[in-house]
Amino acid sequence: MRGDRLQGETGDSFGGKMGTMSSAEEKLRHPRPGSAIARAGAYGIDLTLLIERLRRTPEERVRDLQRAIKGMEAMRGKAPRSRRSSANAPQKGGED
């Protein structure tokens, strides 16, 4: 019994790849009125994105996160520096 519950919680039974909708996906697609999931959807959270992520295997999720980290690290070097940096500070004695 506990194994069935854990299987859904870990993402192993989130269907998608086998063509069947899991109970977790069903709850996200058709939440009970007044539930936290329904309130999240009404607030504007895109529950379909959550479903998409949960359909991926843990290995796929890790790989996606690693790609995102590499992309963010690449952008970090290209971001403009703060206005307070010494390169942008006004030069003393430059005005006459």
What attributes characterize this protein structure?
96 residues; mainly alpha; 5 helices; 0% strand; elongated; disordered N terminus
Care to describe what's here?
With 96 residues, the protein is mainly alpha-helical. It has one domain (2-76). Helix content is 54%, strand content 0%. It starts with a helix and ends in a 20-residue tail after the last helix. Residues 1-18 have low confidence and may be disordered.
Sketch the major β-sheet: none
What gross morphology would you assign? elongated
Q: Per DSSP, what share of the residues sits in E-state strands of 2 or more residues?
A: under 5%
Q: What's the quaternary structure here?
A: single chain
The rounded Rg comes to 23 Å
The total of beta strands comes to 0
> Order of helices and strands, N to C?
HHHHH
Helicity, as a percent range: 40-55%
User: End-to-end span in angstroms?
Assistant: 83 Å
Brief overview:
The protein is mainly α. The protein has helices at 2-10, 23-29, 36-43, 47-55, 58-76. It has one domain.
